[in-house]
Amino acid sequence: MRTPWGRASSVDVVADGVIAVSTATHGGFFLSPTRNREVPACFRALSRDGLAREGWYEEDADSCFVALTFPELFDADEIAGAKLIYDTVFRPKLIEVKAPAGCASIVLVREG
Question: Most buried residue, 4, 33, 60, 71, by most Cβ within 10 Å?
Answer without folding.
Answer: 71
